[in-house]
Amino acid sequence: MVDRSNLGSSTTLYSQNINKPEDVEAFYMNNYTEGKKNEDTSLPFVIFHQNIQGLKNKVNEFMLSLHPEKPHLICFSEHHLKYDEINSIHMPSYKLSDYSRTSLKCGGVCIFIRDNIQFTNINLQQHNKEQDLEITAIKIKFPKKNVIVFCVYRAPSGDFDYFLCHIDRILNYCISQKLNLYYVEI
């Protein structure tokens, strides 16, 4: 297993010649794609979270470090990318839900969702405020329940009162809608 806390480009993971993005995609597709949607609900639902502190130059190595795992969701905080940059990131077999900063550097949160999972983006844009609360969320409909997954970041210098007030509003709304809430990681 690769130490994911330091995803530098110099680590050699496999003896295959993997130097370009299309090499990573071919490796990933050959080792991870499934012929049909996974409908087996007896298998665990896997969510991976990492404060990536800059995603742009780490995508290829990160994807390789997942071998042999293939989480259903990959949540990143502090991806450090603007809207157009995060939307140009290609992670084979995953779709994207994100929040990106527009003026300040760094920050940002995103969720990559395996492409065989049906989900709905939840619009929380009115609550996002750079440094104080950066949040993205999706709703996944399972056979017996709906589940909301949030990816949240607050900079250490952010306004803690703003963060608490808006997180409280978001969670109370979810409760009023009788949505299932599960603690994953803060």
- Our count of helices gives 4
Query: What is the CA-CA span between the terminal residues?
Result: 24 Å
Fraction of helical residues? 10-25%
Oligomer: single chain
What does this structure look like?
With 186 residues, this protein is an alpha+beta fold. It has one domain: Endonuclease/exonuclease/phosphatase (Deoxyribonuclease I, Chain A), CATH 3.60.10.10. It has four helices and seven strands, in the order H-E-H-E-H-E-E-E-E-E-H. The chain has helices at 21-32, 59-65, 83-87, 160-176, and strands at 47-51, 73-77, 94-99, 109-114, 119-122, 134-141, 146-153. A four-stranded mixed beta sheet has the order 1-2-4-3. A three-stranded antiparallel beta sheet has the order 5-6-7, with no helix packed on it. Strand 6 and strand 7 (146-153) form a beta hairpin. The radius of gyration is 17 Å and the shape is globular.
